[in-house]
Amino acid sequence: MKGDLKILVDSGIRSGLDVVRMLALGADCTMIGRSYIYALAAKGQAGVEQLLELYEKEMRVAMTLTGAKTLSDLSHDSLVQNSKQLGEVLNLPERNFIPELESA
């Protein structure tokens, strides 16, 4: 079914890390409406440019930490789960569970 339609995520995207998470979960793209509007209201075009640069830097860091060289390299395997329940809901591989993070 994934090939037949595009998946856009539009809720709670506040950082480049959020974008990487959503892409790893299978989204084709994310919306950044609220962040965009805040940046635009605060500093106009320069604010939006700064926001996009920040998102790009955050995405590069997250991708480097997962070993992904391109956006298409992101997958469920890129994610680390901090809760067994979350892993079950998102159908993440058991090997991605880190028990030490569950109580954090």
TrEMBL record:
Organismal lineage: Bacteria, Pseudomonadati, Pseudomonadota, Gammaproteobacteria, Vibrionales
Keyword annotations of the record: Oxidoreductase
CC cofactor: FMN
PROSITE patterns, alphabetized: FMN_HYDROXY_ACID_DH_2
Protein source organism: Vibrio ishigakensis
Annotated protein name in UniProt: L-lactate dehydrogenase
MF-aspect GO terms: L-lactate dehydrogenase (cytochrome) activity; L-lactate dehydrogenase (NAD+) activity
Signal peptide start and end residues: none
Residue ranges annotated for the FMN hydroxy acid dehydrogenase domain, each copy included: 1-84
Documented EC number(s): 1.1.2.3
Record has Oxidoreductase as a keyword: yes
Gene Ontology CC terms, in alphabetical order: plasma membrane
SUPFAM superfamilies from the UniProt entry: FMN-linked oxidoreductases (SSF51395)
One of the GO BP terms on file: aerobic respiration
